[in-house]
Amino acid sequence: MMGKVKVGLVQMTCTKDKQENLDKAIVKIREAAAKGAQIICLQELFTSLYFCDVEDYDNFDLAEKIPGPSTDALQVIAKELGVVIVASLFEKRAEGLYHNTTAVLDADGTYLGKYRKMHIPDDPAFYEKFYFTPGDLGYKVFQTKFAKIGILICWDQWYPEASRITALMGADIMFYPTAIGWDTKQDEETNQDQYNAWQTIQRSHSVANGVPVVSVNRVGFEQDGAMKFWGGSFATNAQGKLLYLASHDQEETEVVELDLNQSDFMRKHWPFLRDRRIDSYQPITKRYIDED
């Protein structure tokens, strides 16, 4: 019996001041811990504004080593509060080599390791390929004090292959630190279509794999008002049922209880993992199935 775990979701606005954002996140981690959170997830690149809207070499100065200053500060907090922290950071791996990376800190302050974002977008206002090298650590799970957790980051959320592999590695919960929003010139119907697609694909990962999903997005206007990060952070149970849904325009620190025993129940009664035809899946490794 795996029991229940309380997860904290921190949805917040950011500023240009890196230390100010880190300090704010620590305040909100304390708030979540005070509400009973055991595993606390921060949004993607929470120590800065979402800088990938422009290709600017000066933005590389925001990167840091992992482990490094931010993880050092968060390790102290994790140990003090007895909580696991999932922290998405801009990693400087070496001179000229950078990743979009999430560090995991255990409840005793131990640095458990990191996951480097595998899928890197290059869309208008999301020029991540200018900054980030695709991850080379593969998909990762981390055995924390409270649960074995899988980490995927933002653009990874669209890929069922990534969530499937993470689930097959034994993840009890999948966390998605994320940063996505609306162009403020768009109409409301387009906005809702985009948000619904984003939420639906992640809930489908929960359904297909029989594990809870926790997705934490940033909120607020950035890019000189051209982008409204849509918040809408959420948590599901092992059948994709929404247990919590954040607003589109407010900072929120919420704690949600997940019953990890539901995964076994759901996989018994909806046996998608058992019924997979793994002998037939080799074509999935092709870019496209045609004659070339």
Automatic annotation (TrEMBL):
- What keywords are assigned to this protein? Hydrolase
GO BP terms: putrescine biosynthetic process from arginine
Q: CN hydrolase domain: from which residue to which, for each copy?
A: 5-260
| Pfam family membership, one | CN_hydrolase
Reading the lineage from the top rank, the first entry is: Bacteria
In the record, what terms sit under GO molecular function? N-carbamoylputrescine amidase activity
Looking up PANTHER family in the UniProt record yields: BETA-UREIDOPROPIONASE, NITRILASE C965.09-RELATED
What name does this protein carry?
N-carbamoylputrescine amidase
